[in-house]
């Protein structure tokens, strides 16, 4: 039996394993490092960083929901300068592969962030989180507007040059995900991250008011997995050459395999780490085993396998 | 920024016993060697509901006490209120059931280097971690006085043995069903003056902690309080559990109560800004 | 203590209780009547009926997912004529209040169905399920296209005249639910039903192919409740006068209350009845109790209560 | 269209016993008076996973046998394979655990009015409902012969007492680990001819039922089979469980296997169209 080639690539970035932390679900990386060496997973996707430091939204910031949770963090973080000064060097020191997630309120802010990242060494790729309200356009979320999505990616691409792979992270809360995906790829994205959280809300039946300080929040966890799998499948069907980082409710190796069969080249794990700090390691090990059991000799063979006609047909 | 408790471990640990005590359950869990690394104020995060549960997040509970015995090994005691589905599930688990834990988590109560008089104030099950703390303070020569409060008698947690390490223990209930009728905060100013209290340790609902902070600030007494915010992860990776805390320079940051807490300096917590946009 | 006024109205239709079966989740009504008298609930929303009989999609038609399920029934049914000949008379005989759900593949089909319903007695309202592929327009789902949605409702309104209330049932799979809701209300809808299922998919990791015969399916059950509550809240915020039939994962009286506080004038129960055939009765009883406990003297006082500023603010 | 079983009731019922039998669990549940309304072929729908389960749908199991005793009252026996999370949960529940059931559901096996020779064919746990059926047929004077098949010995369910009501019982395993090596369908044609079989009753995996249908049609023997389709509700309200079945006029309809089945006329089921768009 030949050993499984577990590696994956996004643009020109190579990762020894297809398992990543989901943005915003691993803080600076230090906290998870208590439980396993960060270099053992595919890579760390950092919390979306903005130009300035932000204190985020008021508490309560979370509500558990059936097989899921809502969060309304509001991108609390130290800002790009403190991030580059403290967090990146730590991750580099840990020999973790790093995908930096950036977020902005204007097209210009994204480009500014990209400019600051251009010359930083030790970064494998940039994830562009476009699920932010666009302050230039009635607060509409960038990722919900095909034109705004393209402009953000185009700006980042121009700033960053041809070297660093760009992954556009899309929101599922749209009528036509495929056309948004096509748009950002045309604008220069090398890969796609699917899916960000789904907009949701919980009302506290005791106070009889929205439970979250921010009223609405993002739904994540196993509850949304079928939505995420559908999103990855739909996009991979029309853009089979574009690597997808699949996420949304992955909590086991089986779930990760499902996402890969749907068309993901890598998987990111968010909420599952909250319930289980070593989730990523278990998922990685289980996935390896499941691929091997099914006779795959490389991860790449399994990517999008569910799209092939089955023998029966 | 703080880092996660260096001793934190994920482990599978069996329940040694589960007994009803008033409105609470006293649950003792065998955590072996890990018991030696737990300090008063630390908490544990427990998976609830079993393999096919729709509850995907851990529940946090203060470690009430740890002990080591040659027969059972290291154990940890929790005092659990059956609140919602997760804590109800936990209260229903019997001897021998194996729990998935991450422990110890968070900061611990700071112990004075000198044997000074201290006051411990607990609200409801918030008294739980104070008994382990009292023993430690007592062993360091501190004079330890304790105030316990709750809305009603059955919500007072005050075990017999708990009195051993304290100089005095006074109980307050809002309905007067046990001890003095009134709030646990009523006598604090008096006690500070009478006993020359150097440090107040507190654990309980947020309004209680806020009220104690006011009194402590007035008398310039150190106030270490254990806070309780909704937590999704307990290990510092989700940013849901934040509290507004004043920095040295006067600016205010949202700090994670799971790793910068649960024990915090009461005078720095901006109680009036909790739940507000900073 | 005064008795609770538990009644609700949608347009000129009055219902003694705010609890309904969700379309497609009670078959002809006969099956549930085994467990409780149909007249005891607010009303029956019938399975979406089309002009002709349909055999629906191939099996497997369902997959259980964490706190939810996918279905791909494909609107199997007898067609409007058989429906009017057999099912409506049965429900009338049971003294059930009836909301007839209709579905079509063309704007014309909806109008044709409306025409057939115009003179049928015993019907309280029509629910127009516009979550169907529009065969006239690249198979795009009506409810995902503001213009197509309006045209369907406009056609039904013109055909049906002013008497029978029209409830437009919307899909959550859109970028801007509020503008679609506004559009159908302008076109003549008296009420809105929110939400239909969310598009999802499960891949069978053994066959390594999509599990459902129809590949994608509709996600329902508690998993989607936060999405449904958000949808109802968003729409009620801008259209506070329009009655909303809220649905999506309601499985307890508490869940129903949450939906009502968010802005629903009535609730429909779908998937919960699969797990528990008497779910609607328990939900109805629990809801009554919860409203009474909170000091409400009528259901109507509670509708949209979560939108009021809380004392704290 | 058929209607739901007129006897169907939702009830809470305690487990009387739960024993491992080969790869299966024999679970006996006290259902009181409802036992008297259960017929061979009917099934039960059971809530699994408890209050905070992420499994929201009931699981369907054939009623293997019912009995009434003066001490325990009416009981129902199930033979359960631990397949996925729901059935594993059920197999792990012990004596005294109270289950939420809807029972009896579905159609039952039709009993011949004359005492004719019949053949019962069971695959895997599909043999379970055949033993209760055998007793009934036997009591009506039918000659009952039985064939049981599975991939391997541990998947054969054939209780000792089961043999009482049958004239002969032959076992087939694909790996030859028990009885004859081969498929349970191999000897059917032979037996029909030898014994002049009038009705075949079958229960097991779909390919087995399809194969038996072919043989039964060839010899023009009535074939009543109990099918197993994924079911979301079990009571006829969801339309997920359909099978393509020929109508009198030759057209094909998707019928609900939960209320038009599970027992269906094999020759009318369009096995080759299962999973196809009609
Ligand atoms: C540091 C810390 C120490 C604690 N110590 C104790 C203790 O010693 N004894 C005890 O009985 N309880 C303690 N609690 C509270 C305990 O965590 C909650 O009662 C419990 O999480 C409720 O879960 P549930 O499923 O029963 O309720 P639900 O309301 O159904 O929980 C829903 C979600 O909200 C969260 N949540 C609800 N209430 C609280 C709360 N008060 N604090 C934090 N999260 C909450 C839950 O974790 C869960 O994610 C402590 C909490 C914290 C943060
Ligand atoms: C009429 C009928 C009678 C049955 N009798 C028996 C019996 O006597 N003994 C026995 O062991 N099993 C029987 N089954 C099969 C049993 O229902 C499934 O094994 C069980 O539902 C699997 O649930 P799970 O959670 O363990 O598996 P999972 O695969 O996790 O289930 C996921 C979902 O798929 C459905 N599902 C999965 N497999 C089946 C299946 N084979 N049939 C129907 N639904 C399925 C489940 O109900 C559930 O909704 C019967 C099924 C039917 C329809
Ligand atoms: C607490 C929390 C914080 C998050 N923060 C970010 C973020 O900063 N940037 C981002 O792109 N996505 C963020 N996400 C979304 C996740 O990266 C991920 O897309 C989503 O949670 C689905 O995956 P999961 O179900 O595995 O959590 C956050 C999710 C959670 C739960
Ligand atoms: C099996 C099934 C069939 C459905 N059929 C229809 C239908 O015919 N017409 C319709 O408008 N909605 C249909 N729905 C959607 C439901 O009416 C409801 O909007 C959705 O399931 C969310 O509610 P729930 O979570 O309570 O099921 C169906 C849902 C399910 C699960
Ligand atoms: S609970 Fe997750 S950071 Fe504190
Ligand atoms: S299982 Fe729902 S109709 Fe048969």
Description of the structure:
The complex is a heterotetramer, with two copies of chain A (about 325 residues) and two copies of chain B (about 280 residues). Chain A has a single domain, classed as Alpha-Beta Barrel (TIM Barrel). The radius of gyration of chain A is 18 Å and the shape is globular. Chain A is about 35% helix and about 20% strand. With about 325 residues, chain A is α/β, with parallel strands linked by helices. The two termini of chain B are about 20 Å apart. In chain B, helix 4 links the parallel strand 12 and strand 13. Chain B is globular, with a radius of gyration of 18 Å. Classes of the chains: A alpha/beta (about 325), B alpha/beta (about 280). Chains in contact: A-B, A-C, B-D, C-D. At the B-D interface, helix 1 of B face helix 1 of D. The site of one flavin-adenine dinucleotide (FAD) has 21 residues of chain D, from strand 4, strand 6 and helix 1.
Give a brief outline of the structure.
The complex is a heterotetramer, with two copies of chain A (about 325 residues) and two copies of chain B (about 280 residues). Helices cover about 35% and strands about 20% of the residues of chain A. With about 325 residues, chain A is an alpha/beta fold.
